[in-house]
Amino acid sequence: MIGFSWLGLLLATNVAASDIAPAARPAAPHPDCMDARAVTEARHLDERVVLLRTPTGAHRITLAEACPRADGAALVAIAPHGWVCGTGREWLRVGDRDCAIGGVQPLDARGWALALREDAHKNPTPTLATVVVDGKSQPKRRFAPSPEYCVDPRRVRGWHTLDGDIVVTTQPRRGSRERASYRLELTGACPEAEYSTQLSFVSGVGIGWICGNPGDRVILSESLGGMAGSDISAVLSRRGCEIVAVYPD
Prior knowledge:
Elements: H1 6-18, E1 34-35, E2 41-44, E3 49-54, E4 57-63, E5 75-78, E6 83-84, E7 91-94, E8 97-107, H2 109-122, E9 125-133, E10 136-142, E11 156-162, E12 165-170, E13 181-186, E14 198-202, E15 217-221, H3 231-239, E16 241-248
Antiparallel strand pairs: 1-6, 2-3, 3-4, 4-8, 5-7, 7-8, 9-10, 11-12, 12-13, 13-16, 14-15, 15-16
């Protein structure tokens, strides 16, 4: 009788199986798809909107159903081969709940910053100061600036114009999320920016930072070259140019 070892057969089978190369991951079905395996940052803005960022870009995820935020819960995107494209066969796991994904929209630096700024306005940060409402003390809530959508004028070290906007270079604080360059998007024409040599800022909401909030302006001086002393230059300098958005450049 010929004998054999089941253990030897099992080991041989395992070795043979391990030699089989895993199937290659299919390419993204569409250029706007997001790689769920490379997410580095997630922001759950509300019950239907989540922002996800990867090393190659950012996306706005719209959920097909209300999915309440769970403080401290991890967000995990689940999709075929890890590509989130808004096909209807994808989910976002929030804690122990799976929420269907309804749409995916790529975001550039401007879109990411504006989405975070909008969320900060909708969900202002509580402060230590209090007010009394119906006999009860309530914490005040105010818009909180962030270096993701605001710039601190005290850190500005240089500037230049670009396609009608102003780009400032800054000196970021060590260990902060501040960027070295920000684009200040202006509303309407601001011709004095092309000829001015100095600038200062006005915060419309009095927080010191410039975020594109209502009333945020850049004030330019020594404008219009040889017309610096003219009435036109004086009017432009006093008026300034309105800033509607701030985002890393």
